[in-house]
Amino acid sequence: MQPPDRQPRELEALERRIVACRRCPRLVAWRERVAREPRSAFAGESYWGRPVPGFGDPHAAVALLGLAPAAHGANRTGRMFTGDRSGDFLFAALWRAGFASRPESTARDDGLRLRDAWVTAAVRCAPPANRPAPSERDACLPWSAAELRALSRLRVIVCLGAFAWDAALRLRRLADLPALRPRPGFGHGAQVLPAEGPALLGCYHPSQQNTFTGRLTPAMLDDVLVAARKLAGLPTTSNVPRGPA
Description:
By secondary structure, the chain is α/β, with parallel strands linked by helices. The protein has a single domain (6-231), classed as 3-Layer(aba) Sandwich (Uracil-DNA Glycosylase, subunit E), CATH 3.40.470.10. The protein is 37% helix and 10% strand. The chain has a six-stranded mixed sheet. The termini are far apart.
């Protein structure tokens, strides 16, 4: 385990490198075009328009791995899952589960703090149509591998969607961990408890396509986060108001 004072410094240095990345020409062109041509709802705002680093507790036991920044969400605000409906759904659940200090995430400087959790994504730049190419995924995964390696207390990765699940399996190879055989399939609530490396938990992505149709409900996401706390050895806690007994 890394000394406590070294771990945050390593993550800060890694963040500077991620933000400066220009490995994928298509993604660079798209993220910067979106930043130059904001939606009318965000007219006058200054977009981040760069790769988005992960954020949270540098001593996190649980990491949440998404797909990529949303064009007018994290690509605008500079923080993962911040500024869009997916993030609204996710951070409300993180707050209910005791991982977040508040139930909403609106800006990098809004005062939100995560405890025991780290939020990141497999791809760091907003992709056209929210679909990174395989080559872009592979070019970006080393950033995630370095980020997760710096989280020396990490015990569980919650994979938000099939893309993140596949990325987490690929990250095991980058971490020189044994391949899982047979290859575990993605499913909501799926659990993989390998002999080496973090446990994997599957969860439907909190996209509007899933949350508006009821494919992913708040209770379903709550159950996954409670399971993540248990697998990580964290005490079960809740911010859900309770009525009289």
